[in-house]
Design goal:
By secondary structure, the protein is α/β, with parallel strands linked by helices. It is built from 15 helices and 17 strands. 40% of the residues lie in helices and 20% in strands. The strands form 3 sheets. The chain has an 8-stranded mixed barrel, surrounded by 5 helices. Bound molecules: guanosine-5'-monophosphate and manganese (II) ion (MN). The site of guanosine-5'-monophosphate has 14 residues, from β13.
């Protein structure tokens, strides 16, 4: 039962404490969220990342005082912010969790810091109708691996935190290294591949489903391995990123070489490239320079940039600024794999885009009486409202192509229409001959 008298008494004590601290000035305890400071170098770097979560926060909110949980989170955030060591960073994530960056590379010492912060935050107290409330915290701690990228590091910290929760909470769990050994091929192997010109962009056409004509090609980086396997970038991009010359010299050349036959000539079509967050917001990054270079060498109005669904855009303001400039030059922007991951309605709201590539999961289930058709037709309406072209990905059957066309989706890409192949193969079939 709420003990109103005790609550009032405690509130009185807290007010008195505030008055004393404020030395006579009226102290207003605002429910201000903790100050936001950027966490870590966004692209990774050395140090320690900790994800902290208040245990049993759901149990805090009762029907009578629904904001106790919010106030507790603010109080916990205040304590964490005040105990954060110099050079550290802190962010409150949307999930209500706290992401903490420590520049400390000695994991034992970093863990001591996290334990101290956790202990202090556990005694943060707020008043509620039913008395004072405090909660323990759980923490997941990981070593930041250079080049790993922020989102992957957070995912690892999240898995580590889940372990702490599964063990009952009120504890810290630590992941010392990457949970799985890196599958990235050794640097020498990729350097040999570059020397042997075994890296190239393949292309896959995108067709207008109404008349069967090619509207564009998507450029897809491939490694033709000596054993005959053709690998996509997931299998070697981590290694490639450690070879700075590759990004600066090799990629623009390969990209221009693959796209040129399609984007020039008497009836040019577009070439689309997959771009990540740093290519748009990371001034000075290799990816950013890569983009600048291909823009100098290919006609901008024949270029499409697909923001991939895993692209973490750290500086939305910068990305938007760059996108506006690109669009002013005639470059079109697409959201890749729309409907999954970060390629969502919020991104569509925020970024000025010209094309939406509908993820293949919505195409795959067509014709089986599922919910895909309703989702796709609402996307058609959405696209019309925003003056956006829709491209369906993963078209694997004629039935799917027909259904898509019937729904009003004008463009399609997929194995049934054309597989990714070396640019020369497709150029001889769909590109117009060079003029004169
Ligand atoms: O995420 P993005 O849309 O950029 O994916 C391109 C990848 O999808 C390429 O690696 C390509 O091989 C693959 N892909 C292209 N068409 C199809 C298809 O019809 N079905 C499936 N499963 N994958 C496809
Ligand atoms: Mn793509």
């Amino acid at each position: 039962m709420p003990d109103i008298a005790a609550t009032l008494l405690l509130t009185g004590i807290a007010a008195l404490g505030g008055w004393l601290i404020g030395r006579g000035k009226m102290v207003v305890r605002s429910a201000r969220p903790p100050e936001l400071r950027p966490v870590a170098p966004p692209t990774g770097g050395e140090g320690t990342l900790a994800l902290l979560d208040v245990d049993d926060l759901k149990g805090v909110n009762s029907a009578r005082d629904f904001d106790t949980g919010d106030r507790l989170l603010n109080a916990v955030g205040d304590v964490l912010r005040r105990t954060l060591p110099a050079g550290g960073g802190m962010e409150r994530l949307e999930s209500g969790r706290f992401l903490i960056w420590l520049p400390e590379t000695d994991l034992t010492r970093a863990c001591e810091t996290v334990e101290r912060m956790r202990a202090l935050a556990s005694v943060a107290v707020v008043e509620s109708m039913s008395g004072t409330v405090s909660r323990s915290l759980s923490a997941g701690v990981v070593t930041a691996v250079p080049d790993e990228g922020r989102s992957r590091a957070i995912l690892r910290a999240d898995a580590t935190l889940a372990r702490a929760k599964a063990l009952g909470g009120n504890r810290m769990e630590v992941t010392r290294a990457l949970p799985v050994p890196s599958l990235a091929p050794p640097r020498a192997e990729i350097e040999a591949a570059i020397a042997a010109r075994a890296l190239e962009f393949h292309v896959q056409p995108i067709f207008d489903l109404r008349d069967g004509r090619a509207a564009g090609v998507e450029a897809l980086l491939r490694w033709n391995r000596p054993d005959g396997a053709i690998l996509g970038p997931a299998g070697f991009l981590d290694t490639l990123k450690r070879i700075p010359e590759a990004g600066a010299d090799l990629f623009p050349d390969l990209a221009v070489e693959a796209a040129a036959p399609f984007v020039t000539g008497t009836a040019p079509i577009y070439a689309t490239f997959n771009v990540t967050g740093t290519m748009l917001d990371g001034r000075g990054s290799a990816g950013y320079r890569w983009l600048s270079q291909i823009l100098d060498r290919l006609p901008p109005d024949r270029l499409v940039l697909e923001i991939v669904e895993t692209a973490v855009i750290v500086r939305s303001d910068r990305a938007i600024e760059r996108i506006e400039k690109l669009r002013a030059q005639g470059v079109r922007i697409a959201l890749d794999d729309f409907g999954t991951g970060l390629s969502n309605l919020e991104r569509l709201r925020r970024l000025p885009v010209d094309i939406v590539k509908v993820d293949r999961v919505f195409v795959d289930g067509l014709g089986r009486g599922g919910r895909e058709e309703a989702i796709l037709s609402s996307l058609v309406a959405l696209a019309q409202g925003l003056n956006i072209d829709l491209v369906a990905e993963g078209v694997e059957t004629q039935l799917q192509a027909d259904t898509l066309r019937g729904l009003g989706i004008h463009f399609g890409q997929g194995f049934h229409l054309g597989r990714p192949a070396p640019a020369a193969d497709w150029a001889s079939r769909i590109a117009a001959p060079p003029s004169a």
